[in-house]
Amino acid sequence: MAAALPAPAQTVKKPNIITIMADDMGFSDIGCFGGEIETPNLDRLAKGGVRFTQFYNTARCCPTRASLLTGLYPHQAGIGHMVNPRPQPAYQGYLNDRSVTIAEAIRGAGYTPLMAGKWHVGENRPHWPTDRGFERYYGLISGASNYWKLDGHRKMAMDDQPHVPSAPGFYMTDAFTEYAVRFVDEYGRKPNPYFLYLAFTAPHWPLHAWPEDIAKYRGKYMKGWDRLREERHERMKAMGIVDKKWPMTKRDAKVPAWSEVSNKEEWDLRMAVYAAQVDRLDQGVGKLLDKVKELGQEQDTLIMFLADNGGCAEENIGGEQPGMPGPAESFTSYRTPWANASNTPFRLYKHWVHEGGISSPFIAHWPRGIPQRGELIHRPSHLVDLMATCMDVSGATYPASHKGKPVQPMEGESLMKAVKGQKQRSKPLFWEHEGNRAVRDGDWKLVSRFPNDWELFHIGQDRTELNDLAAKDPSRVAKMKGMYEQWASRCGVVEWGRLQKRG
After folding, report:
1. What is the three-class DSSP state of 285?
2. Where does the pLDDT of residue 9 fall: very low under 50, low under 70, confident under 90, or very high at 90 and above?
3. Using omega within 30 degrees of 0 as the cis cutoff, is the peptide bond preceding 8 cis?
4. Which residues are designated catalytic?
5. What is the architecture, at CATH level 2, of domain 16-425?
6. pTM of the model
């Protein structure tokens, strides 16, 4: 009898990868992170996957996008601040040629890179998505815009051509969803896997939403921000998102008690429109999930969801054009009181690197590759980890050079390490934005709000940053300050005051 032939090696299917990002959304806004806003589709992803409770962004739009795309700290990629160009290499205002994007790197593993949504890491050619590795693109090149029509100072593009939307009923969030679904429908039917980056502008100001979505939330916020924060905090503790021993921060000193507010209906409307924007984003996620399922690829698609910074306390947006929030003629934000609620239970907001500015909800869902269902992962993680994760699960090799120029080594670690039970990072994490600085080393965080001195917190015991231990542990402050200074020097960080003077 002839000897049996060995079984052929099993082919491992490379997953499609979808990264979805919200814009200016707080840590506690979505349902699976304690919020009351209806987000059944994101909640479904969380139930079938994992939630990272200590995932960090960079506290601001452009730096976050630069870091996500390159696996580097934003200064290393040339966007240490925003897209306003400066002569310093770390602040040139567009992705530099010493970085490589996920789109450029993942092509080597046979992936087709696709993008829909907000770019905001290079205003002009040759710094658009199709110049940096994406096969297809539809979206907003610039920063946040009117949702109903393109602002005169903003740019949109379709692939490599300028685009001005003209279809009746145009709404930015829906348009991004529509093209993301189109791309998946087209490229999901082809043999090669795809990488899709879907970057919503919702719920970034201006407060613009469909009337039927706003109607779902009118009156729900008449309870006020004080009670809303308490209710969210209780749900977060019950879920295990935050530790019960961490007290919630006090209401922002600039915010009045709800009982003292006279124009409650106006404030209710502001938060109702904001909630409607988040709701519409979730509806878009649902349409995308439906398409993935229709193609039979739900088991083999890694989906990651996050936010680019904490809730936004910016006020007097665009001169606060008259008109109540919602329609195209209005232009306003939900302001500090509701941002304070969005970031429950943390301190501060977008711009700052205390926990309220840099903490993001994060969901990872991949039935074939992530066995956990509905579990929480408390390991500290960061935007720089997304490049490493994509390289890991795709089998791509991160390049040493690109287009003949050396590429800086990626800074992150694959999130699959955390999924597989590794609780600690091998390297500390760092932040700098507009002079606000921080280091996270294990359970310790050294942080400074510009131009103030350093504060020291034990995040494991006090993630709401209420007990400053700097005076009690000066040696640790000195050690971590030294770590920060070495990192800042390596990454080309310029002291914020000097950078402002130089222009």
Report:
1. helix
2. very low
3. no
4. 61, 120
5. 3-Layer(aba) Sandwich (3.40)
6. 0.96
